[in-house]
Structures are given as C-alpha cells and as structure tokens.
Amino acid sequence: FGSCGLQKTIIYTPEGQTLDTLNFGALGPGSAWNHPLYSASASDMGLKVYDFDLDSIVYRFNKECNSPTGCAFVNDHEVIWAYRDAMFRTNFITNESVLVKSSCDSRLYLRATYHPMSNKVIWQRIDQDIVSESTIEVRSKLFMMNPDGTEEVEIIIEE
Fold first, then answer.
1. Angle at 87 between CA 34 and CA 49, to 5 degrees
2. 63, 82 Cβ separation under 8 angstroms
3. In which band, very low, low, confident or very high, does the pLDDT at 2 lie, cut at 50, 70 and 90?
4. 137: Cβ–Cβ under 8 A, 6 or more apart, which residues?
5. pLDDT at 43 exceeding the cut of 90
6. Strand 56-62, strand 68-75: pairing
7. How many other CB atoms sit within 10 Å of the CB of residue 122?
8. Among 77, 78, 119, 141, fewest CB within 10 Å belongs to which?
9. DSSP, residue by residue, 114-137
10. What angle do CA 47, 120, 155 make, to 5 degrees?
11. What percentage of residues in the chain have a pLDDT greater than 90?
12. What pTM value is reported for the model?
C-alpha cells in the first residue's frame, strides 16, 4: 500500500495471484466495487471515484470527513457514502452531492451494500447508548432504505 506519499492498490484473485496494480491509492477499506467501470472510496478527505480504463481518479469530492465508513454505487453515475457525521449521495458526472441523512457517534452507519433489483441500500448501523457513568451498550444492526434515505427499516435476524 503506501509509504512516503506513494500509494498503490493491488487487486488479487481469491487464490492470491496479482490481477492488477492501480498506481493511485484510490481504494480503501470502505471501497465500492459494484460498478463494472469504476471503483469508489470514502476517505478522510472525502470521496474518490477511480476509472479502471483510464487508470486514474476521475472524481473527487473534497470535504474533510471524520472517519469514513463506507460507500456503494446506486446506479451508473451515483455513489451513496457515509462518514461519522453524515450520509451523502453524489453524482460524479454532474458533480452534485446531496445530504441523505445526518448521523452521529451514537448512530453510526457503516458498510453500504446496494441491491439493484430492489433499489435498496443495506447499511450496518452501530447504536451506542450510555447505560451508566462507566458503561456504554453497543449494538450492531442492519437497516435497509431507499438510496435517498427514505423508508428506512431495520432488518431483524431471528436466532
């Protein structure tokens, strides 16, 4: 990965063979790969979209972001992404970003997954509640919503 400002992303097969090396640090832990031509990555400096054919970053949404948490393509030209304080939907062709939903440390959205047939985004959400002066209760939940943040419902998994 990176040192002294040089960053690369190496793409491996499941067997560990190198498929490709991207010469930019365009991908991170919260990257989206669900597009045939692009990847996207939320980072501390905002959102980046990487074009595989051009081997370069083709879009940057520069915003200092506190703890990026994930992103997913919701169609050919839009990415939904989140960081600690908010969730955005960005059109990287028209350069427009809209606030989808505000969040906070006690309700943190992580790891987006988009399902094209249902047009729904599933997020893991971490809920934290103060129980006492020395105890915080942390719960991990799944929520499904439209790409615009409406119709949010919790997915209950029975044990």
1. 40
2. no
3. very low
4. 128, 129, 130, 131
5. no
6. unpaired
7. 16
8. 119
9. EETTTTEEEEEEEEEEEEETTEEE
10. 110
11. 22
12. 0.72
